[in-house]
Amino acid sequence: MQELRERILADGEVIGSQVLKVDSFLNHQIDPVFVMRMGQEIASRFAGEGVTRILTVEASGIAVAMAVGLALNAPLVFAKKSRASTQNDSVYTADVYSFTRKEAVHITVSARYLGKDDVVLIVDDFLAHGEAMNGLVNIVHQAGAKLAGAGIIIEKRFQGGGDSLRAQGVRIESLAAITSMEPGKICFAE
Q1: GO CC annotations (predicted)?
Q2: Which domains does the chain have, with CATH numbers?
Q3: Is 185 labelled a binding residue?
Q4: Which of 142, 174, 186, 189 could staple 155 via S-S, CB 3.0–4.6 A?
Q5: Would you say 130 is a known binding-site residue?
Q6: What is the spatial distance between Cα 143 and Cα 94, in angstroms, rounded to a whole number?
């Protein structure tokens, strides 16, 4: 998505060679009009797949996942990073390591909102090492649901998560794929 590439170049900040800060429009302050366009783009790539649920992890993926859900007319389910006292014992769980926060979290999804008859599209803001995505794929499998694939806003291909998931047969659609970056320079995949 050319508009996203331009926005990353204009507003993104590379920290070291591993971190891309896009908090001015995607995950701290959100540009809702732009997020809706990105959601519509992801939805168009999965149109016709029969998606019945959108799945993400709280919190930064929720805005884009909501936009995709709106475009596909599918409910959004998000994995909670800590089990809520209101959740019953019927949950799907996975352990996920966050390289951004440098901590492991135990994500949960209520079995009430994800089942064997669902076709699930995972949506997230970033795909880097693939930890969150692997956890979500695991939860889809626990539910016995069909995985349509994953819609990603920014994939950092040089960190290998996307390659690993593709090798497992997961369809990945990234709106912007970065092959390398350093302060002042971002290289995108064609």
Answers
A1: cytoplasm
A2: 31-177 (3.40.50.2020)
A3: no
A4: 174
A5: yes
A6: 12
The residue to which tokens 């331009």 are assigned = 6
* Between residues 79 and 86, the one the model is more confident about: 79
Encode pLDDT of 103-124 as tens digits. Answer: 888 899 999 999 999 999 999 9
pTM value is: 0.93
- 20 known member of a binding site: yes
> Is 80 flagged in the annotation as binding?
no
103 in a known ligand binding site: no
| Residue 132, marked binder | yes
